[in-house]
Automatic annotation (TrEMBL):
Protein name from the UniProt record: Amidohydrolase-related domain-containing protein
Gene3D superfamilies: Metal-dependent hydrolases (3.20.20.140)
Length: 675
């Protein structure tokens, strides 16, 4: 740059007007075929980072020529002095809360580097602002104030609809909260001036899931896409960069690629970034092959960006299975190389840097390998303009056709997942209502875990349950209701049928116990003998919950066979509960209930994840909470429901831990339901 370093007191917003890539910077990116990282997350969810110099060194090694930096709009709460510092935002012990200081931490580090004469602070980076609460209708003034303090090149990365993040965020986060604020943010992005000063139109950079985390076939319609369309339609002349194109690890994704292509065709101001997870083929939502095809057809709407947060030299904790910064960049580079091999140098040039530079309004260097935009449009393999509507219609037809299938097949599909046109669920054979026995000898079977009620507190009734038991050769069943109910929020067009169907909350539903009692009492003596009714519709974090337990037991003292299923640590359900206090098996509110169970000689069935969500460290972080109860109440008959396993909570050698626990504690039992 040839500029003398300035002292910290001399540096200000005016000194950073050059905080945009110099022409030679992007020219070097083009000539060296390095990458433009469209969204580099400088800080993690604890607002920690390895720093500017570590990032620059890692970029040089990984072939990243330029990066637009963003902070992290949330901070993870560290709950409890006796708990380890959370290493992942999905740890359910602490909520996320909106953290407005993230932008200041990022820009301060860059200013300090600039003060020290480090030219890379202005040559290699640009910055976008993200420290805003999308639930705040006064967000417009916050954004305008931020733009007056620093030359941000975009607003983002903002999180719109993400069940995993919204569910652990204080005050939640949903479209009813977000839409008014988002419209105000996009209005600021599209304004020609802010604070009486002229400005360029800024892009809006966001991450938002295309669908819920539900794996139920009836939710196979990418129900969150309408919100993405609302963003793109808000101001057609504002560029909108959709980070990761809406895909993530869970959910059902058949038919998504053509819908995504249709959206790119329909909205010229909509751009997508391919993340390392997509480029490495780690996500079912968008295969690597499908992503390559989209990049070839729509190169001027596709770019590349990393997802790791704050760690640029150190590997992330191995138990979560994430890639290192170097591995992420290698996945992006390999993807760009494959685009070049399949679709030519021009498509690759747009993917590597030109699309990102266009999104952020940077001047493009001359590049003989890159065709002009007009030429690219003329030669690209555009899909028809109505493809989006056609693809959506095909999804709805698939949804309707499921009900027209054999009823038994449809019912089993609700439990196990119906096969797509290409494959069955997780590659398994087409499920049947009753699987044939592998042995000739008939055994007396007892279903140890049967919910008479679902998450809407609905039921097919005991007659249907008995018929199903007969069909499955089940002689008896341990039955209970459902201690919580799923809320139908006014901004959702369809009522959720299952707790994972959207990110609306769940609440304790105490009347479920009464409905179980009424159903059992309505049976004849012969049918009653086949059911062992249980009750547990109370909040396990409520010290007064013992009153509900005593009340229900005293009302029907000869009927109840156990207390349960008590819902404690549960990977998704825990984060959806309105109370937000973490229910755990050794919560003080349960002590009086354990004592009551011993007094009246009732077993208690508890759902308690053995480990944190998503890790593979063989440590079983929450096993100690189970042991705490077993040690303090050695005569308590405790049944560990699902053997401590949940959807995102299991270890490869989980069975060894269960074997040890059963050998060590004679008062412990487990059920293998669902497992």
């Amino acid at each position: 740059m040839g500029m003398p370093p300035k002292t910290k007191t001399q540096a200000g917003a005016g000194d950073f007007e050059m905080m945009r890539p110099q022409a030679h910077t992007l020219a070097k990116v083009a000539s060296d075929k390095t990458l433009f990282d469209a969204h580099c997350h400088y800080l993690n969810y604890l607002q920690q980072t390895e720093g500017v110099e570590a990032l620059v060194g890692a970029m040089d090694k990984a072939g990243i020529g330029f990066a637009v930096l963003t902070g992290t709009a949330f901070k993870k709460m560290w709950v409890g002095a006796d708990q380890p510092m959370p290493q992942h935002f999905l740890y359910d012990d602490g909520d996320l809360y909106h953290y407005s200081m993230t932008d200041g931490l990022l820009t301060n580090d860059l200013k300090m580097a600039y003060d020290k004469g480090k030219d890379f602070a202005v040559n290699r980076f640009a910055v976008m602002a993200c420290g805003f609460n999308l639930g705040d209708f006064g967000i417009q003034a916050e954004v305008e104030r931020a733009l007056g303090q620093y030359p941000y090149v975009a607003i983002g990365e903002m999180t719109l609809q993400s069940d995993d993040i919204n569910n652990v965020t204080i005050k939640g986060g949903n479209w009813s909260y977000f839409q008014p604020a988002i419209e105000k943010v996009i209005a600021v992005c599209g304004a020609s001036s802010v604070n009486n000063k002229p400005k360029k139109k800024l892009p809006f950079v966001f991450v938002s899931d295309a669908r819920s985390i539900s794996t139920k076939p009836y939710r196979h319609d990418f129900e969150y896409l309408d919100q993405i369309e609302d963003v793109a339609q808000a101001m057609p002349d504002v560029k909108c960069l959709w980070v990761g194109a809406g895909v993530f690890m869970r959910g059902l994704w058949d038919g998504y690629a053509p819908i995504l292509e249709g959206m790119l065709t329909k909205y010229a101001n909509l751009y997508i970034s391919f993340t390392p997870e997509i480029c490495a083929g780690k996500l079912d939502g968008l295969s690597r092959a499908a992503a390559l095809e989209i990049a070839g057809k729509h190169p001027q709407q596709c770019c590349l960006g990393t997802t790791i947060r704050g760690l640029f030299v150190t590997r992330p904790p191995h138990e979560f299975g994430g890639m290192s910064y170097a591995e992420e960049c290698a996945a992006l580079s390999s993807f760009a190389d494959d685009v070049e091999a399949k679709y030519g140098t021009s498509a690759a040039a747009w993917l590597r840097y030109r699309t990102a530079a266009t999104v952020y309004n940077f001047d493009l260097p001359s590049d003989p390998n890159a065709k002009s935009k007009a030429a690219m449009v003329e030669t690209s393999m555009r899909v028809l303009g109505k493809e989006l509507e056609d693809a959506k219609a095909a999804q709805m037809e698939q949804k309707k056709s499921m009900i027209a299938q054999d009823p038994n097949q449809f019912i089993s599909g609700l439990a196990y997942g119906l096969p797509s046109s290409k494959r069955t669920n997780r590659g398994a054979p087409t499920p049947k209502t009753v699987l044939p026995s592998r042995v000739e000898k008939k055994w007396k079977s007892i279903d140890c875990h049967l919910h008479l009620l679902d998450f809407l507190q609905k039921s097919s009734g005991t007659v249907a349950a008995l018929k199903a038991m007969d069909g499955c050769e089940v002689e008896r069943a341990v039955v209970f209701g459902m201690p919580c109910c799923k809320k139908w929020c006014y901004y959702r067009p369809e009522q959720p049928l299952y707790y994972q169907d959207d990110n609306s909350p769940c609440y304790v539903y105490a009347y479920a116990d009464q409905m179980v009692a009424d159903a059992w009492l309505a049976l004849g003596d012969k049918e009653r003998e086949r059911f062992a009714p249980c009750f547990a519709s109370f909040d396990p974090t409520d010290l007064a919950a013992i009153s509900h337990v005593r009340r229900m037991y005293n009302k029907y003292p000869k009927m109840w066979r156990a207390v349960g299923e008590v819902m404690c640590r549960h990977d998704d359900l825990t984060t959806m509960l309105l109370g937000k206090e973490i229910p755990r098996i050794n919560h003080p509110a349960l002590d009086s209930i354990y004592e009551f169970c011993m007094q009246v000689d009732l077993p208690i069935l508890v759902h308690q994840n053995a480990d944190r969500v998503g890790d593979n460290d063989a440590a079983w972080s929450f096993r100690g909470e189970v042991e705490d109860v077993l040690k303090r109440y050695p005569t308590l008959k405790l049944v560990w429901v699902h053997a401590g396993v949940s959807r995102r909570c299991s270890e490869p050698n989980h069975y060894e831990m269960i074997d040890m626990m059963l050998s060590k504690y004679p008062n412990l039992g487990v059920d293998f339901s669902w497992v």
